[in-house]
Design goal:
Blueprint (H helix, E strand, L loop, with lengths): L3 H9 L15 H12 L3 H17 L8 E2 L6 E3 L5 H16 L3 E6 L26 H16 L12 E5 L4 H10 L10 E5 L2 E3 L9 E3 L2 E2 L1 E3 L5 H7 L2 H8 L3 E6 L10 H9 L4 E7 L9 E5 L2 E5 L6 H4 L12 E10 H11 L6 E5 L3 E2 L5 E2 L6 E5 L12 E5 L2 H4 L14 H18 L3 E2 L24 E3 L11 H4 L3 E2 L3 E3 L9
Parallel strand pairs: 2-19, 3-4, 3-10, 4-5, 11-19, 20-22, 21-23
Antiparallel strand pairs: 1-12, 6-9, 7-8, 10-14, 11-14, 12-13, 15-18, 16-17
Helix pairs in contact: 4-5, 4-9, 7-11
Length: about 500
């Protein structure tokens, strides 16, 4: 084991000798733990990453207006501007790829439910549906359903879409136990591949690594862009090859409406010959604080809200739509060949971004302090920073009310909370039933319409309606069940294989 002088020499080279400040007060066991952790740190990489972040931070808030270009029309596609025949061709193309075992899905599930007021992984959260299914449960059942839909395009009756789940150190154990407890929701365990993203030390604003305890550093996950390093460490490129995977659908855990392994999106990207694709929704307002997909100095890019001036954000095209209106929703398509290039050749070129946070730290007395104010930074890489490395790009615009309702906040917040997620999903299912010829029995006939969102007063619809993903993936197959029928709320359509107890 390295001795004190050796550690001090290594740390002093990078201005981190303060990490040994409690050495004389540590037990032999704690000294071994601290030594092991410190020897495992790539201090040169950490300090350089911090310096790069600091330099970028100096430019934060500067607009990029003169360097931004709207997306070229040839990369764009839209669910609302495509006719039924075109949509069906994309769907068929996607189902063929799924049915022949060429598609896998990859879930980014490193987030805890801290802002929701819980300590467990966000994927385990129940937004209050009648079934009380969690985000993980809903997504697993959608995966089972799309596998079923793709079987008609498969030479193997056992059509499989492998599900890769990236977890953080904080969510790993709970996620694994949750899936085991629920028998992987009917999926085969060997096709649910869980792996862990890396962590990186948290820093003070003057570049010092923060101690969380006298014998350990404060660390945080390295962002959703840590995916590429995590794939390399877990040797998952080899697994993709062994399974014959050619295409990946990558998404974040918190979208209650996510269409996992969406055959239309996958088929669109394949038909365009795209190495990289992204789903977007139209921005609600110029001031909506979302990243915008565009071009920066000729390369594909996601511009943060703060990087675009109000004047540029408000620009409109000939149709009266915002020029920069493609809002990202963390929903991506990649070819495995493109992913190999990123992992093997380009990952080291990705820069960290700064997230200013309240980071628990160890004070001079060795006690843990949870600050009430921002006191440091976490360094994160973003998944979309690889857009710059491709010229074969595809952008698929979908309806927000059909495909995007993120769970970000607790019920005390006005938006993106359990209530808005619950309302979005039940409104979607209500519209599926109306489109399939069903009706809802109620006194106020004015409400019995194809309204895509919540009531104007912000309250949830009085119609409680939930359809199991095992019954319908995206509204298909409901006519035989609901056509010509008058349904009374609450309406819950279960699959025959499900026990009807929440």
């Amino acid at each position: 084991m390295a001795d004190y002088e050796e550690l001090q020499k290594k740390l002093s080279k990078y201005g981190q000798e303060h990490l040994l400040g409690f050495w004389t007060r540590l037990s032999e066991s704690d000294r071994r733990c601290l030594t092991s952790e410190l020897l495992g740190l790539d201090l040169r990489h950490i300090v350089k990453s911090f310096d790069d972040c600091t330099e970028d931070l100096k430019q934060a808030g500067e607009t990029l207006d003169d360097q931004l270009e709207p997306l070229p029309k040839e990369v764009l596609g839209s669910v609302t501007k495509s006719d039924a025949e075109t949509l069906n061709s994309y769907r068929t193309e996607g189902l063929k790829a799924i049915g022949t075992g060429k598609v896998a899905v990859l879930l980014l599930a490193g987030g805890q439910g801290t802002r929701l007021g819980v300590t467990y992984p966000k994927g385990m959260y129940d937004v209050g549906l009648p079934s009380h299914k969690t985000l993980f449960h809903l997504q697993a059942q959608r995966l089972l359903k799309v596998q079923e839909l793709a079987r008609s395009h498969s030479s193997d009756k056992d059509c499989v879409i492998p599900w890769y789940i990236m977890m953080s150190k904080q969510t790993k154990e709970a996620t694994q136990q949750y899936f085991q407890k629920h028998d992987y929701f009917g999926l085969q365990p060997q096709n649910v591949v869980m792996f862990e993203q890396s962590t990186i030390p948290c820093m003070t604003f003057d570049g010092k690594i923060i101690l969380e305890t006298p014998s350990s550093c404060a660390k945080a996950p390295d962002g959703n862009g840590g995916l590429y390093n995590a794939l390399s460490k877990a040797k998952l490129l080899d697994d993709f090859n062994a399974r014959g995977i050619e295409y990946l659908h990558v998404y974040c855990v918190d979208n209650v409406l996510v269409q996992i392994a969406d055959p239309v999106f996958i088929g669109f990207c394949i038909s365009r010959g795209a190495a990289c694709g992204v789903k977007v929704v139209e921005k609600k307002l110029p001031s909506e604080p979302v990243g915008v997909i565009c071009k920066l100095n000729g390369k594909y890019h996601v511009a943060e809200y703060s990087e675009i001036s109000p004047k540029t954000a408000e620009k409109q095209d000939d149709e009266g739509k915002l020029v920069f209106n493609a809002g990202g929703i963390a929903n991506h398509f990649f070819t495995v060949d493109f992913m190999k290039t990123i992992v093997q050749e380009k990952e080291s070129e990705l820069r960290y971004h700064v997230a200013k946070k309240k980071i628990p730290y160890c004070n001079n007395a060795g006690q843990l302090v949870k600050p009430s104010e921002v006191n440091g930074i976490k360094m994160e890489k973003f998944i979309f920073d690889i857009f710059q490395f491709t010229s074969s790009f595809a952008v698929w615009e979908v309806l927000r009310e059909d495909e995007f309702s993120p769970l970000k906040n607790g019920n005390d917040a006005a938006t993106d909370n359990p209530a808005t997620c619950r309302a979005a999903l039940m409104d979607l299912h209500r519209r599926w039933i109306l489109k399939s010829g069903g009706k809802f029995a109620q006194e106020d006939n004015a409400r019995n319409s194809d309204i895509p969102s919540q009531n104007e007063n912000g309250k949830e619809s009085p119609i409680v309606c939930e359809i199991s993903p095992l019954v319908s993936y995206s509204g298909e197959g409901l006519e035989d069940i609901v056509k010509g029928k008058s349904l009374t709320s609450p309406v819950v359509l279960w699959h025959s294989t499900e026990a009807h107890q929440p």
